[in-house]
Design a protein that fits this description.
The structure is a homodimer.
Chain A: H1 32-41, E1 45-48, E2 53-55, E3 63-69, E4 72-77, E5 83-89, E6 94-95, E7 108-111, E8 115-121, H2 122-131, H3 133-159, H4 162-179, E9 186-188, H5 193-200, H6 204-216, E10 220-223, E11 226-229, H7 232-239
Antiparallel strand pairs in A: 1-8, 2-7, 3-6, 3-8, 4-5, 4-7, 9-11, 10-11
Helix pairs in contact in A: 2-3, 4-7, 5-6
Chain A binds a DNA duplex through α6.
GO molecular function, one term (chains A, B): DNA binding
InterPro entries (chains A, B): cNMP-bd_dom, cNMP-bd_dom_sf, Env_Response_Regulators, HTH_CRP, RmlC-like_jellyroll, WH-like_DNA-bd_sf, WH_DNA-bd_sf
Pfam family, one (chains A, B): cNMP_binding
Chain lengths: 243, 243
DNA sequence: CGGATGCTTGAGGTCTATCAAAGCGAGTGG
DNA sequence: CCACTCGCTTTGATAGACCTCAAGCATCCG
């Protein structure tokens, strides 16, 4: 998979106001003035090589991060070493909202490919959103959207069977890629079967078997991490086959 | 179970500034001035009889609600009629955060006993939190806490087995009741086995069997909905027995 | 008191996990 | 340039956890 948005030459000072992702990210719906002020806030960038952590559970929370390019996973772990992938984040999505509650990050965020994020110092964001109603509201919407998303994952984990889970996962991925201008039918997975399994509450063997079954059923073409969706309607049917 | 906080006589105008729950709720950490202003905002009350909805999926979103007395469940449902309980809320906890993202509620909130909530008009809250930094920050913390809580539920649903789930659920309940001044060992469940099962991703029979097993193992005393925790450390061990 | 609702318990079946082995592919070094 | 290695994936056989179906019991409430 190519980078969702071509990286500008380094010397060009990119900013929210001229970012290709502003329709998917925090700036959505802001006025020109608000955008300008946001630019002054979101000045820093940070590159995260594949496999490295953007932050880890327990790290002091100072900033939110907006994915510019690349791909991340977030995961939580319990004291006894259990591990659960809680989400995958692509360009335009926010990372770090978990950290606000206790001033420390509550999960790990790991880059699944070489990535770049915009650093959004949280104190500054709160300060600025006191002056700009719309910015404040947009931020609240983003947090709320995360809560709604999490509820959807609970529904998936609590009430769906393996095939339904994987189908729902693939449809969600393709829908998000499509919103970023990519094909809705051809995708390259950035994560391993094990990471998909962790996210979906399944073992990696079950994920692999389910991919194979979808291929046998003519829903997908699967070549390792290269996936082609042959029958989107069929996938939708699988998701809804539970009840 | 008794009401967590004795209901004041109706004629007494209760407000955030003299609410017994202010250490658990939105007012936490606010100055006297901020509290006073919050009082003017949170003027309305609403009673919800047992079994009735505070709001339903699709209802227009206008206000958040703080539970004053009683007990709620929230649940989401998919198009195909699948149903998932996403949480249980008791006194001092906020309901409705899901509604911010699309100006419509994204779940159902049902009272599991006769309940009373404080109505917090959301526009007013955003307006007021533009003036009061601390209120804004406290609200952000509450939203973030909800996100962290949801991640914990994902961990539970994605990686724990039936006994671990139920033990974790009971420990969470007793801990929250304890924070409200109740016994950490004796509790009365306000929800059915089926609702517990839906929350934990299990069938009601499995919940019932697991309760029986805990009783056989000397961890609990179970009399229908009356639960006595006999061995809290043992429950903790069950939660961590997975890995 | 009697019906309704919710809870418990049993038997048998299904789905997913577990254990094991072989295959594929990308990157490395000879 | 090829052989090798390592990580990841696929596939098979088996086992175990949880679900399903069914019956009986307890509790609540009119």
């Amino acid at each position: 998979m190519q980078l969702p948005i071509p990286v500008r030459p380094a010397e060009v000072k990119a900013a929210c106001s001229n970012c290709n992702l502003r329709e998917l990210c925090l700036p959505l719906g802001l006025s020109a003035e608000e955008l300008g002020r946001l630019d002054t806030l979101v000045a820093r960038r940070r590159s995260v090589p594949r496999g490295e952590a953007l932050f880890r559970n327990g790290d002091p929370f100072e900033s939110l991060f907006a994915v510019r390019t690349g791909f991340f996973k977030t995961s939580v772990s319990s004291e006894d070493g259990r591990d659960q992938v809680t989400g995958f984040q692509m360009a335009g999505e926010l990372l770090g909202l978990d950290g606000i509650s206790h001033d420390r990050h509550a999960c790990d965020a790991i880059a699944l490919e070489d990535s770049q994020v915009c650093v959004i110092p949280f104190e500054d964001l709160e300060h600025l959103s006191q002056q700009f109603r719309e910015l404040q509201h947009q931020f609240h919407k983003i947090m709320s959207r995360e809560i709604v998303r999490d509820q959807g994952v609970m529904l998936l984990l609590g009430s769906m069977r393996a095939e339904e889970r994987l189908a729902a996962f693939l449809l969600n991925l393709t829908q998000r890629l499509h919103a970023r201008g990519f094909s809705a039918s051809a995708l390259v997975l950035r994560m391993t079967r094990e990471e998909i399994g962790s996210y979906l509450g399944l073992k990696l063997e079950t994920v692999s078997r389910t991919f194979s079954k979808f291929q046998d059923d003519g829903l997908l073409e699967v070549k390792q991490r290269q996936i082609r969706v042959l029958d989107e309607a069929g996938l939708r049917q699988v998701v809804n086959s539970g009840c």
